[in-house]
Amino acid sequence: MSDYIDLHTHTIVSGHAYSTIKEMACAAAAKNMTHLGISEHAPKMPGSCHELYFANLKIMPRQIYGVKMLYGVEANIMDYDGRLDLREGLLKRLDYVIASMHLPCVKPGNVEENTNAMIGALKNPLVDILGHPDDSRYPIDKEAVVRAAKEYGKVLELNNSSLTPTASRQGADENDMDILELCRKYKVPVLMGSDAHYEDYVGEFSQAEELLERAGVEDELILNRDYGKLQKYLKKAPLL
Questions:
Q1: Fold of 5-231
Q2: Model-level pTM?
Q3: Could you identify which of 49, 109, 121, 237 might form a hypothetical disulfide with 53, taking C-beta atoms 3.0 to 4.6 angstroms apart as the criterion?
């Protein structure tokens, strides 16, 4: 499988990543990727950037080293109602929004609480992608979450970083297999994300690809290779 789009990446601005935007774009160009998205952690993640960073992304070029650039955010789900940590006015100005649950921002609840948090985020019209819903520290009713993604026209992420041997999100392989089976059942689209925090990992999807093949997910549900198809789910993203 050849993949050309990676929307889940972080730079030094996120506080715990190690490359610049230009270094990430250069790495994407070296891999012949067509599109790269930069999705810094939103402000409530310790060490991440101020909201002024997101307000000023309008100055950034739409092409770097021949790679078409998108600028979004990985917003933090802050409570069991699915509220995010970036104000609506800024979310509207970004190309796309990933919503994820992270330990520094919201403590794990029970299955009902975690499920409500993710569904609450999916209901938000400004959210496009649910990030790494595979974390065993946040147990969920997987079918309810996948059905909500279908109902609200959202994308579920298959996070390559979750599947690596050193990942902190343990149990992701089994959880992702369950989620992918449900995505096939309900025809919910999937977007692989590298979650790269260093340039070498841009567009790194090897673990995710293996799981998709094992799960028998149809190509039509995988959005990484067709920006036109992906853009239908990114309501604010430009035509690049």
A1: TIM Barrel (3.20.20)
A2: 0.97
A3: 49
